[in-house]
Amino acid sequence: MKRVGLFITCVNDALYPETPKAVVQILERLGYEVDFPAAQTCCGQMHANSGYQEDARTLARSFEEVFGGYDAVVTPSGSCAAMVRDQYPHLTGSGLGARVHELSEFLLDVAGVEDVGARFPHRVTYHPTCHGTRALGLGDKPVRLLRAVRDIELVELPAADQCCGFGGTFALKNSEVSSAMLADKCRNAAATGAEYLAAADNSCLTHIGGGLTRAGGPRPVHYAEILASAA
Amino acid sequence: MSARKRGTAVPTSAAPASAVVPAASLIPADAPFPKAAKVALGMPQLRKNLAHATGTIRAKRAKVAGELDDWEHLRDSAAAIKADVQHRLPELAIEFERNAIAAGATVHWARDGAEANRIAVRIVREAGAEEVVKVKSMATQEIELNEYFEAQGLRAFETDLAELIVQLAEDRPSHILVPAIHYNRTEIRDIFDQRMGDAPAGLTDDPAALAEAARLHLRRRFLSAKVAVSGANFAVAETGSLVVVESEGNGRMCLTMPETLISIVGIEKLLPRFEDLEVFMQLLPRSSTGERMNPYTSVWTGSREGDGPRDVHVILLDNGRTRVLEDEVGRQALSCIRCSACLNVCPVYERTGGHAYGHVYPGPIGAILAPQLEPGRHDDLPYASSLCGACYEVCPVKIDIPEVLVHLRQQGPHAAGEQAAMGAAKAVMARPRLWRTALRAARLGSLPWRRKGFVRRLPWPGSRWTVSRDLPVPPKEDFRSWWKERQR
Question: pTM of the full predicted structure?
Fold first, then answer.
C-alpha cells in the first residue's frame, strides 16, 4: 500500500496551509503517493462535541464518502483522528477509524520510520494535546519522531499534560476558565526558553499561540513542519 | 491577614484574625456555571489553596496507583462489578434488605430526599434524642439532612474534621472528599477561634494544634450522643453489611458508641458479594487520598448484643437514581465511588473550586451526575469541561466522563443563536463547493479586524475568544491552491 489519502482538517484548510504541505512532503519523501480529495471538509467534531449529533452524523457520512475508498488516511490532527476512531462507530457504525492515522502513528506504526531525515537547529518544547494523548493514545510517538531530528534541542514543558483550555466551543462558552487555563500554559511555555512550541494539533496551537502572541513566548508550530524541514 | 512563616509551630496568636466569611456566600449558588466560575476565578487565595491541595493529592494518587501492576485490571473489574449491579439492582436491593433484617437491622426505603429525611427525624425522636453526631456522608449532603434537622428543631453535628470546619463556617462543602479544600490552615484557625466556642486560647495554625482542638471539641460530642447518622461507601447484598471507609476515626466513634445508628445509603452503593470489596478497597484509598490503605474501615452487619449500636437502621435512598439507570449511556455515573480523583485532576475544577458548580457533587463527576439527578436544573454543567479526558484516565471505576458529557450535551437545550450558527456551519461543511467559497469569504471577512498580522479584537460572540487570545489571519495562498498548482 503506497497510496494514502490526506485529510488536512478544516482548521488547516482555513488557517494553516504549511502543515498539510509538510505532511505531503514527508510522505512523498518516504515514497508514498499522496492523494488530496478536494471534496473533504470537516470530520464533524465541533458538532458532535457541542451536542449536535444529527449534524455531526451528516458530516461523518460525507467524510466516509470522501475517504471510504482509501486503505490509509493520514491526518495531522490527533483530535480529528480520535473523532473518527472513537465517535464514528456510535454515529454511523463506521469502522473507517481503523484506517485513519494521525501522522506520527502512520510514520511509526505503518511506515516503520522514526528518523524522517529532518534537521531543525532550534530549541523546541512539546505540548501533548489532550485528545491525541488521552483519546488516541499517541503516547510519546510525536516526541520520538522529534528526537530523531538533527540538531534539535528538546526541552520539557512543565505541567505538559495539563489541558491548554481550548476544548472547542468550551473556549467561548467558558471563556474565563479557558483563559485562566491558557495563562498557565503560556507561562509554562515561556519558562522553557524555547523558540518553538510544537504540538500535534493546530486547533490547540491556535489557542496557545493566540495567548503567546500577547504574553510572549515560543512560536507555535505543528511538529509536522519540523519533520519536513530539510536536512 | 498577617505575614507568618509557613510550616512552623511558633505561637502566633497575637496575629489579628480576619472575620470568617463563608466562601460559598461569595459565589452565587444559582448562577450559571460560567458566571459563578468567573467570581471564583477572581479569588486569588481560593485559587492558590485549590492549586496547592489538588496538586498535592494528584501527585500522591499517581504514585500509589502506579505501584500496582494490575491497576488497569482492577479498574476493569470494578467497572464490570458496577455494571452488573446496575443490571440487577432490584434483586440486589431486596437481597440486601433480607440479609440486613435477618442480622437485626431495620431497613427503610426512601423514594427521595424528603422521605429519607422524614424517616431519619422520626427515628431520632423515637430514640428520645435532640442531636446526632454524623459520619461524613455525601448522601446526607445531597438530601440536605442537616438543614432539615435544624428546621425540625434537631441538631446534626459533623465530626469529620473538614466537614466540621465547613459547618462551623456556615459554609458549603466544595469538594467531595476534602470539603474544606478551599481553606488554608490560617483560615481554619480563624474559623475555630471564632466559631468553635471551646477553642483553646492562643490557638495557632499548626496542623497538629488544629487537629487537637477539633479532637477535644468532638470528644464531648461523641461521649454524649445517643444517635449517629452515617452514609456508607458500600452495601454488600450477600451479607447485608455496610462499609464505611475513613481516615480520622471519627467514623468509628460514631458507628460504635451511640445506641442508635441511622445509615442513609444510595441504592447504587450495593455490591453483590463481600469479596467484591477486595477490588474496591484497593482502588478507593489510592484514588481518593493517595494512600495504599485508609486508617479506618468499619464493616457492620445488623446489630449485636453488647457490641455497638443496638438499634440499627438503614435507609435505602433512590432520589433520582432509578431514573438515571434508565439512560444506557448516562447510567455509568452511578458507578461512582466518590473518590474525587476526577476533581483533583480536572483543570476546570482546579481553577474554580466546587462552589461554582452549584451542586453538592462538583467537578467532572458532578457535571454528569447533577444534571441527571435533577433534570433541567444544571444544563450548563455538561459544558463545564474542555473534554480533556484527564478524569476518565484516573477514574477507578472507568466512568467515561467525556462520553457522558457529550451525551448530555446532545439532550440540550441549545440557545437559538447557537443552533442557527451550528446549522449554518453544517450546511456549509456538508457542501464542498460552498465550503471553499466560505474559506475565501473568511479571508475577506477578517480584513477589518486585522492588526499587525493577527485578528486581535472581534465583536461578540467572537470577543469571547479575543478577550485573551489573538487569531491568525487566513493565509494568502491556501493549501488547495498549492495542491492544484502542483498537480499541473
Answer: 0.94
